[in-house]
């Protein structure tokens, strides 16, 4: 169940980043693409992503959890959402 | 959610509103400077809504709005981040920040970075047991007179806005260079200037925490609570306008009998009360540990815009006297304009609100 949830979160987050942040230009986007390093997640995109997680998955990300480790790539973010869901 | 003030809230409001004389030390004695700081660190231990009422009362009672704004910058962007994120040794500064012995300043804004913390140019490079800060902060409220600065610098250039760190730096630290106060449109009771870090070495213990986290926390409280100052100011200004239009006559009739005049005052009141409810809701959301970004952005927009329009209305109601500087009406307009800018411009608030709406 948790693995299935994780996969679903990862898929939806990938869709969000591909469609909204990269406007479809996602040829090199993978679950481990370094989002901060590549400049994909700036402060506004991070805010959008946190809001999306809250509305789409009902998971509130506490500000203290918005760290470079947790937001390194899509895999890390999906892991955070899965963990916060409990 | 309950409406109405408790006896304690009302007493506190009246004590601050009717204090008569205000200066920095008096604001410390009244509990304004440490309103939201925990009691064990010398503060009043108030939540966001109670803190907003404190600033609303001070905004009404103290005619030097810049002084109360300086107190807000001191509390919300310096003392409160130290209370929330600071180390034990950093927290030792809090009692003196609460009683007014120390003055705090938030050094964030740079020539190319206002609300966008990811655009900061100031750097903090690791060296021995500390960091070396280099960079220019271009608009620092309380900057020319502060004893303690909370500032922000890039520590990990590869991590974007999350690669910034907040620091607590004392005045007198070698390499911290501050300017004289510069001139500005309003809020003249609050000295503002530049702060530059030139190879400024700070110890590890100066680290406050992740820059983005510390900054967003302070901004949320500022947007919600600090703007309560403008509620108090507008209450006072509307009362003055009512007294004026009931006394002054034109064409043999009191101004208040002209519907265009009375309607204007009703609109001022409607604008104020609508903004007040939004601000209380934002503070309530903070107190409930609810997501407060949207209500705080809407509240900040409503209050700041109401303050400008109401001040403009007051100038029109007073006519030539409202335009003269010795009457004390036009200064409300000059003081209100800054509210459209600090804690994030109106455009930034709309951007935040749009993001929260999923746009």
Automatic annotation (TrEMBL), chain A:
Domain of life: Bacteria
Gene3D superfamilies recorded: ACP-like (1.10.1200.10)
A Pfam family matched in the record: PP-binding
All copies of domain Carrier, residue ranges: 7-85
Protein name: Acyl carrier protein
Organism of provenance: Lentzea indica
TrEMBL record, chain B:
Keyword set, alphabetical order: FAD, Flavoprotein, Oxidoreductase
Superkingdom of origin: Bacteria
InterPro entries: Acyl-CoA_DH_CS, Acyl-CoA_Oxase/DH_mid-dom, Acyl-CoA_Oxase/DH_mid-dom_sf, AcylCo_DH-like_C, AcylCo_DH/oxidase_C, AcylCoA_DH/ox_N, AcylCoA_DH/ox_N_sf, AcylCoA_DH/oxidase_NM_dom_sf
Residues covered by the Acyl-CoA dehydrogenase/oxidase N-terminal domain: 14-100
Residue ranges occupied by any Acyl-CoA oxidase/dehydrogenase middle domain in the UniProt entry: 106-200
Needed cofactors: FAD
Protein's UniProt keywords contain Flavoprotein: yes
Residue intervals of the Acyl-CoA dehydrogenase/oxidase C-terminal domain: 209-354
Family per record: Belongs to the acyl-CoA dehydrogenase family.
Protein name: Acyl-CoA dehydrogenase
Protein species of origin: Lentzea indica
Upper lineage: Bacteria, Bacillati, Actinomycetota, Actinomycetes, Pseudonocardiales
